[in-house]
Design a protein that fits this description.
Elements: E1 2-5, E2 9-12, E3 15-21, E4 28-31, E5 37-38, E6 44-52, E7 55-56, E8 63-69, E9 75-78, E10 81-85, E11 90-95, E12 104-105, E13 108-114, E14 120-127, E15 129-131, E16 145-146, H1 147-189, H2 226-238, E17 246-250, E18 252-253, E19 258-259, E20 264-269, E21 274-285, E22 294-298, H3 301-304, E23 307-309, E24 313-314, E25 323-326, E26 334-339, E27 349-360
Parallel strand pairs: 1-4, 3-6, 4-14, 5-15, 9-16
Antiparallel strand pairs: 2-3, 6-7, 6-11, 8-9, 8-13, 10-11, 12-15, 13-14, 17-20, 18-22, 19-21, 20-21, 21-27, 22-26, 23-27, 24-27, 25-26
């Protein structure tokens, strides 16, 4: 892989932004010294000016992510990019410590420009390295890091905690109400309170303010009527009915793609609102133009609707002719594929695939 040394920079308000152009040959990459770091570095700031064939990118409606595989081939991805001046393509990437775990050159890395649907509309290779830090007491193990997924999972856990707290509060209120009713019924059983239709003896003054109306039946050990039904309905609604479910769906090839007998989508239900899907198996892709998305996999509605692909890969990735999967809308009920290079393929391409995506249930 040839590299292009970054020699120029754009200055803005006293800060230099290294120039990176997204129009370079597919077999070349920028050697970005600014991204180089040492084990233990965290949130390293890298100022970049993105250009398109010499003209500054207007990033007003786009986001920029840094993704790559480190020296050990472990996947890393972060969306910690701040737009400094969108119309001039000026950004600042805060590179988290997970990128600086494995010593050596990154096998490959990309700056990806995405639209509001999460579709990659342009990307450029960057090359950088991680140096050893011999002052660290313990060995650093490189682990997969997907910043967007980690943030999403944290939000999910917080939402689940809120639901569980609400359920506990409802149960506590229900228990307290039942205790109060038991006490009241004991008073009735020993004629300590007035009863309708019976002779009542009052030994002290009685004061009632406002209307007193009882519809239904009141017994010594239960509460009947709308109040208890409402409490039970709230408890039932808060229960998670789908947690832990696993379902498998058969997939088909479309637009010339031929699916193997083992091509399927397996869905793991996290709760009523969310699930995680894994698509895996053999498929022969048709001849395709480079850089053009094509629907190649058809799946049942429940297996794809509302889904969004996150960092898939082949079993044996080809980094030069990298193939990207996408399901940006989910409602299309199909999975798209695109060759990242300009040439594509001139003949059918058999592959074993495996990638995952989140599903949100309405």
């Amino acid at each position: 892989m040839d590299t292009t040394e970054v020699l120029t920079a754009t200055e803005y308000r006293g800060t230099k932004y290294v120039n990176i152009d997204t129009v370079i040959p597919s077999d070349q990459s920028y050697w970005a010294n600014e991204v180089n770091g040492r084990q233990g570095d965290n949130m390293r700031l890298v100022n970049i000016c993105l250009r398109n064939d010499g003209v500054a990118w207007n990033l007003g409606n786009y986001t920029v992510d840094l993704v790559g595989r480190d020296a050990e081939g472990v996947l890393k991805a972060t969306n910690t990019t701040q737009k400094i001046l969108a119309e001039r393509g000026l950004i600042r990437v805060s590179v988290p410590k997970q990128f600086y775990q494995s010593v050596g050159d990154y096998q490959e890395a990309f700056l990806e420009i995405k639209d509001s649907n999460g579709t990659v509309i342009s990307s450029v290779r960057v090359a950088f390295t991680v140096w050893a830090n011999n002052t660290l007491i313990s060995r650093i193990e490189s682990k997969m890091y997907l910043g967007e997924v980690n943030q999403f999972m944290k939000q999910c856990e917080e939402s689940i905690d809120l639901i569980q707290n609400d359920v506990a509060a409802v149960k506590q209120q229900s228990s307290a109400l039942n205790d109060l009713l038991q006490t009241y019924m004991q008073e009735i059983s020993r004629n300590a309170v007035a009863t309708l239709g019976n002779e009542n003896t009052f030994t002290a003054d009685q004061h009632v303010k406002g209307d007193v109306e009882i519809d239904g039946t009141l017994t010594a050990n239960a509460l009947a009527g709308g109040a208890l039904n409402t409490i039970n309905s709230m408890i039932d609604a808060a229960r998670d009915k789908h947690k832990g479910e696993i379902k498998t769906y058969k997939c088909n090839g479309i637009n010339g793609a031929v699916a193997g007998d083992n091509l399927e989508v397996m869905i793991f239900r996290i709760n009523d609102a969310m699930g995680y899907a894994v698509c895996h198996g053999n498929i022969t892709l048709p001849a395709m133009k480079g850089g053009t998305f094509l629907e190649v996999i058809s799946a049942p509605d429940e297996a794809i609707a509302g889904g969004r692909t996150i960092f898939p890969s082949h079993d044996n990735p080809n980094y030069i002719d990298a193939f990207v999967w996408s399901a940006p809308h989910g409602d299309d009920k199909a999975i798209f594929g695109v060759y990242r290079n300009d040439n594509g393929t001139a003949s059918p391409d058999p592959e074993y695939i495996e990638f995952g995506y989140w599903i949100k249930y309405e």
